[in-house]
Every structure is written in C-alpha cells, then in structure tokens.
Amino acid sequence: MSNYATAVLVKGQAIVTANNQAPEQRRKMPTVFELAIKNQEYSIPNAQDLRKSPLRPVEITYLTNVVPGAATAKAYNHTGTYGDSGIVQLVYVTHVETMGIPRKIADNSILQYQQIFNNLYEQKWKNLRTRHDSSALAFLFANRVQLAASVINPQLAAANPGTWNDINFALEISQAEKSLFLQRIKGAMAARYFTGELDIVADLQQAQWFEYIQNQGPGNYANVAFQASGLNFNVTQDIIDSAYPLGSVLALPKAAFSGLVWNEALNKRGVDGGDTSSIGMLGTIADPLGSGAIADISMYTQRADTSASATSGSTQDIVDQWELSLTVGYALPPLSASGDSVVHLISQAS
Fold it and tell me: Are residues 228 and 214 in contact, defined by beta-carbon separation less than 8 angstroms?
C-alpha cells in the first residue's frame, strides 16, 4: 500500500485548506449518538462505578408499577400488596479505531508528522461518532414497542391515531392524515400516558415534511407553531425502517434515552511508559468534537520495516501505534410488561 506516496517531496506541492478537504472527509451527523450522550447522567448516575471490569455485567434495579385496586368498601382485616422490583442488564457497545504513523514517512512527505496525526486523530473520532450513531439508532429500533395489536389498540383508542401494524411494530399514519402526522405522534404518546416533551428521531423524509408543514400560510409562526411544540427533533441521515419508503420516526419521552460512557480502570489511572517505550501509554481522552464522550486511548512505539509503502517508506523505521476505543452502554427506562417500551415507531403509510 502506498501510504502518502502522492505527498513525497519530489516536486513542488501545496496542501488544500481545511474547507476544501471537508468534502472528501465528510461524515453523517451523529445526532442519535449525541442525543444519548447528553442524557448519560439522567438515568443511572453511578454506572461508571458499577462496572469495574469489562467482565462484570451490570444489573439495574427498578420498582415495578402498582396497578389500581378494585375495592370500594372498608374492611376490618384489609391486606395490601407488597409491590415488586425488576432488573435489566446494561449492554455495552465498544467501537475501536486504530492508526499508525511511521516517522520516516512523515519526514519524507510534504505532510509533517503533526499534520498527519491531527488529520488521523480527527477522522478516527469522526469514525467513532458515526459508528456509535449507527449503534444508538439500532438500539432504539430493536427496543421499540413490540406489542400485539390486541394489546396496544385499547391503549391507543382514546386518540385513534392510526393503524397499529404488529408485524412491523409500527403505528402507521394514513396518507389522508399526513398533514396531522405531528399531532398523531402527540396523541399516540398521550394515550399511553407519556405526556410532556418528546424526543423525536426523524429520517430525512419526515424531517423535510415536518419543516414544510411548519412553514405554511401567512403569519405561519402564529398559525403552525403549535404543531411542533413540545417536540425535540433529531434528524438522522439513516433509514429508520426500510419497510416504510415514505419515512418514519422514533418517538420517546424527553431525556429517556441514555448513553453511559465507560472507561477501564487502568486507563482512568493512567500509564506512561514514555513515547519511545514498547509499553507505551494508556489513558483517556475527551471527544474533541464536543459530544462529551470520553474514549480509552492506547499508544506504543515499535520498530518496523515500512519499505512496502512504495516511495516513502524505509527498511528501518519507527512507527507510533495509536488506538481509540469508545465504550457506551445504551439504556432506556425499563418497563415490566413483555414487549413494551417507551420507544414508538411511527411511520407514513403508502
């Protein structure tokens, strides 16, 4: 592989500006990942302390719901229910990105070592963010409401928001009520007693439609602002459900989706063997792009033959090997009923 062969100092060259480099290095917006990360302190504040080792499962205890009674008269020997609790296990997802920088390749290139490092470091973080964004969306989709129509339809009856498809586990909004899509989201969630603000993950089709219907008519803000009140939109560039080519959203209570970042204990304590040591360094590093996530970082230096890298390598080279690993446990508020969830897939029917 000809690593940086085009940048070898054999002719006069210039490096493009960051703005001109951006189209080549573009990534999707990691909106679902960032939605989870900003809520990490909301649900389980001591999650970091609970997981001492990657070998240790983490169980979260919650108090189950107490259903209303049916009694209408006093009794001398009344007895009460004890209540109950349940547990859920957190599932952690780790994504790893590595990079190696041969020092002689950097010496032979118009690109200096620091420029190569800065570029790789930024791109590796972008990769971590976009890979976790896919994992976060997949988690939401996999943990959506999966109740039979016979169970959920009575719960939705007060709002009559659409048709429940218990094969795709989606609430389908008809074309005739397309313009009421936002109100159908609110109605469906309110009918299931999820009142208050909602987080909405919308695909590009639905996001475009929402933008359109919110900006129609004279004095549009006064006329249509109510449609989106209480809805916090997060636009994903992924397809939420391929079964619905006209678009879908995932709706859930505000701040219900959490991304719990975890770091290994040795990385948190830190190891520094020096930048020329085969032991190298272990530590943690914050997302430079501002999500608030903290990754484990590992670095060591080794001798290597990089002559296979065409014109810019050497039989005697020194390579700095870097690894970034980001571990996130995705979590939702637990519900005791099998197949129930706070996450609702709501789709545009054809």
Answer: yes
Cβ neighbors of 40 (< 8 A, separation 6 or more) are 47, 258, 259, 260, 261, 292
Please state whether beta strands 344-348 and 258-262 pair in parallel, antiparallel, or not at all (unpaired): unpaired
Residue 292 has phi, psi (to 5 degrees) of 95, -5
3-state secondary structure of 70: coil
Q: How many CA atoms lie within 13 A of 70 on its CB side?
A: 0
SS3 content of the chain, % helix, strand, coil (to 5): 30, 25, 40
pLDDT of residue 315: 86
* Predicted confidence (pLDDT) per residue in 6-26, tens digit: 443 343 434 445 555 567 667
> What is the widest separation between alpha-carbon atoms in the chain?
99
Cβ-count burial of 230 within 10 angstroms (0-12 exposed, 13-18 middle, 19+ buried)?
middle
pLDDT in tens, 97-139: 999 888 887 777 777 788 888 888 989 999 999 999 999 999 9
Rounded distance, CA 163 to CA 7, Å? 59
CA distances from 222 to 26, 81, 177 (A): 37, 50, 22
What is the pTM (predicted TM-score) of this model? 0.84
pLDDT in tens, 191-211: 999 999 999 999 999 999 888
Contact 346, 243 (CB under 8 A): no
Is the distance from CB of 39 to CB of 259 less than 8 angstroms? yes
Task: Give the side-chain half-sphere CA count within 13 A for 244.
Answer: 29
Q: Which CA distances in Å does 123 have to 62, 130, 290?
A: 39, 10, 14
Which residues does residue 170 pair with via DSSP β-bridges, in sequence order? Answer: 165
Cα 330 to the center of its chain, rounded Å:
8
Give the three-class secondary structure for 64: coil
